[in-house]
Amino acid sequence: MKELDRWARVLGAGNDTEALAEIVPLRQRLVTSAARVLWVDKSLRHCPDGDLRLAARQAVQDAVNLWSEVAVVTRKFELHLRGDK
User: Fold this and answer.
1) Which residues contact residue 8 at a Cβ distance below 8 angstroms, ignoring those fewer than 6 apart?
2) pTM of this prediction?
């Protein structure tokens, strides 16, 4: 699968197992980042600058979306490793 081959190169991995070993800590760092962005969003909840509140809320959504997309790639590697298509 060409998509997974490209991902493996990005992750510096030679096979599915190595790719998963790289992507799991990446996902954990994304969870940590999302939690920090959420903390900022909550801190700015009563900020008088509506644009800033909107930007903070968008940052939370972007962080969650990024984690979700990486989760999809993780699942593809897991399926490929098992031999499922």
Assistant:
1) 14, 15, 16, 18, 19
2) 0.81
Nearest to 56 by CA among 73, 77, 41, 36: 41
Give the whole-angstrom CA distance, residue 8 versus residue 69.
Answer: 15
The pLDDT profile of the chain, 85 residues, written as one tens digit per residue, is 699 999 999 999 999 999 999 999 999 999 999 999 999 999 999 999 999 999 999 999 999 999 999 999 999 999 988 876 5
Buried b vs exposed e over 3-41: b needs ≥16 C-beta within 10 Å?
Answer: ebeebbeebebeebeebbebbeeeeeebeeebeebbeeb
Q: Residue 61 is encoded by which pair of tokens?
A: 């959504």
